[in-house]
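Hey team,

Filing this mostly as a record. A colleague (T.K.) asked me to run one chain through the structure pipeline before their review meeting, and I want the input and output archived in the tracker in case anyone asks later how it was produced. No errors, nothing strange. Just documentation.

Input sequence:
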Amino acid sequence: MSKSSTETPWWERHPVRAQREEDLRRENTKAKMKIEDGEMVWTEIIHTCCGGIFAVAFVTQKDHPFSPPRAYITHPEIDTSTVPHTWAEGHLDLVMEQDMDSNTTILDIRNWTVLWITCYQIHINTREWVAPDH
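Output structure:
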């Protein structure tokens, strides 16, 4: 019995895209990649210019690249109920859904996350969010 397309991991259904994502990771980040619970996950420690250290996980959804990866701050703990641009499920609200499409890469999400972290650090000190609302 063969697996249905929803049971087959996206990286097996889209091997060229999976290789592109892996190449972007290796060439542009210090992230580690692993397969966890049937999803591809990048994990990275991001050091900021303000002295912050953030552990981040970028999780692809089962229908990637047709749904964007989700970014989670895994350390330090962030109360998503009090911080702008976060979802109740704990992932970051990085950009408008219509600004993402099947060309949005995990690296794009990673880079937007770095911007989010910068805004978050400013927010801690000023209680203002410096990026435009979307």
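Quick notes for T.K.: The beta strands are 32-36, 39-47, 53-59, 70-75. The first strand starts at residue 32 and ends at 36.
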